[in-house]
């Protein structure tokens, strides 16, 4: 079996559509701007539309461009599926036997040991990603700390606490929680960030709605600092 990558994050969400790629691209761009050799992987993407005779993984392409477009798109996203369903179901509809080992290899192949590996899952933490396997299983196989993305909306406290408990039960470390789209169509009496911090016992990163790259980088500053401390070579 391939060794665990030593430096990076597994980016997952409390649900589909919470903004994993939005947060992931901002993180990849900020790391690349700091001179980090960042390698992004979205090993499987479903809901891909055809482009120039092939399925085009839009999320994976956004991640690739954010990281500096140093690698071919095939390295970023090895498996592309048409149906906008879980990868397990979409692959079954296309007659593809998508296995967890295949996704793991797609994540770690051609990644130098000193590089920062950012892997984005598909859907939520407990969404099926391969035959008989969940995103959680891929996260465990990789052994990376988890960046959990959730949306600033009603119900997010329940979803986030469940996901945080699930990943800890799997022996994974919660690197950070990002509350996405803070201030977008939210009841002003709600304080999801404050409530999550109280229940989780640590800071929640607030990702602003409609913010520019500088605002996104400010929101991610604590996570960027933590990654710098773990960078091979002592952060140099």
TrEMBL record:
The keyword Ribonucleoprotein does not apply. GO terms for cellular component: cytosol. InterPro entries: DTB_synth_BioD, P-loop_NTPase. It catalyses: (7R,8S)-7,8-diammoniononanoate + CO2 + ATP = (4R,5S)-dethiobiotin + ADP + phosphate + 3 H(+); (7R,8S)-8-amino-7-(carboxyamino)nonanoate + ATP = (4R,5S)-dethiobiotin + ADP + phosphate + H(+). Mg(2+) binds at residues 21, 59, 120. GO terms for biological process: biotin biosynthetic process. The keyword Transmembrane does not apply. GO terms for molecular function: ATP binding; dethiobiotin synthase activity; magnesium ion binding. Keywords: ATP-binding, Biotin biosynthesis, Cytoplasm, Ligase, Magnesium, Metal-binding, Nucleotide-binding. Pfam families: AAA_26. SUPFAM superfamilies: P-loop containing nucleoside triphosphate hydrolases. Its EC number is 6.3.3.3. The active site is at residue 42. Pathway: Cofactor biosynthesis; biotin biosynthesis; biotin from 7,8-diaminononanoate: step 1/2. Belongs to the dethiobiotin synthetase family. Catalyzes a mechanistically unusual reaction, the ATP-dependent insertion of CO2 between the N7 and N8 nitrogen atoms of 7,8-diaminopelargonic acid (DAPA, also called 7,8-diammoniononanoate) to form a ureido ring. HAMAP family: BioD. PANTHER family: ATP-DEPENDENT DETHIOBIOTIN SYNTHETASE BIOD 2, DETHIOBIOTIN SYNTHETASE. This is ATP-dependent dethiobiotin synthetase BioD. The gene is bioD.
């Amino acid at each position: 079996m391939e060794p665990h990558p030593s430096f990076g994050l597994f980016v997952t969400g409390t649900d589909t559509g919470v903004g994993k790629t939005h947060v992931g691209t901002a993180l990849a761009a900020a790391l690349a701007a700091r001179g980090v050799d960042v390698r992004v992987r979205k090993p499987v993407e479903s809901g891909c539309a055809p482009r120039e005779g092939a399925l085009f993984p839009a999320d994976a392409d956004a991640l690739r461009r954010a990281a500096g477009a140093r690698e071919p798109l095939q390295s970023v996203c090895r498996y592309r599926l048409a149906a906008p369903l879980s990868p397990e179901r979409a692959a079954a509809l296309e007659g593809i036997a998508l296995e967890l080992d295949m996704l793991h290899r797609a994540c770690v192949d051609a990644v130098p040991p000193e590089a920062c590996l950012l892997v984005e899952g598909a859907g939520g933490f407990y969404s099926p990603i391969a035959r008989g396997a969940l995103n959680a299983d891929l996260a465990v196989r990789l052994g990376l700390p988890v960046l959990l993305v959730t949306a600033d909306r009603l119900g997010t406290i329940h979803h986030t606490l469940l996901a945080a408990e699930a990943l800890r039960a799997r022996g994974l470390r919660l690197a950070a929680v990002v509350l996405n789209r803070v201030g977008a169509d939210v009841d002003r009496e709600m304080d999801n960030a404050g409530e999550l911090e109280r229940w989780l016992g640590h800071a929640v990163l607030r990702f602003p709605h409609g913010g520019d790259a500088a605002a996104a980088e400010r929101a991610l500053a604590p996570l960027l600092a933590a990654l710098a401390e773990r960078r091979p070579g002592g952060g140099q």
